[in-house]
């Protein structure tokens, strides 16, 4: 997201400098571009709130992962479909997403999709395995034979340093063998 915001800042600044009347100082141009980027972020946050309300999700008591855990499966399915479409549209427009959106969408996808479908979304880079999401998944998945296999498959998809960090926190014999 920082990349999208910085590119937008640069492009708006360049546009204003080239197309401006020539009387604006670079500091004034940067201030206008910064306000523009902040307005984009705020608009993105508001659109996400509207999408959440359209999916009939009550956000007054919970937020983040706990909100996802409190939703019915139908609410999760509808919200995931809407937010996935929003994410694709935003990426096509080089518009910023609200802070925490990638983690929220990934956790929502984990709780909504089958494990194999979830893996496909991760492999296609639609969903991103951030540390906070992985910690929640690692705690939720039981240490059964199937659960350990799922955890190991997810850990293999992470960058080496991130995977090693999570392996060090996982208190299971399989984590010792993989380390």
TrEMBL record:
Which GO biological process entries does UniProt record here?
A: positive regulation of amyloid-beta formation
Q: Where is the chain membrane-spanning?
A: none
GO CC terms of this entry: trans-Golgi network
The segment(s) forming the Gamma-secretase-activating protein C-terminal domain are 41-152
- The protein's superkingdom reads Eukaryota
Q: What is this protein called?
A: Gamma-secretase-activating protein C-terminal domain-containing protein
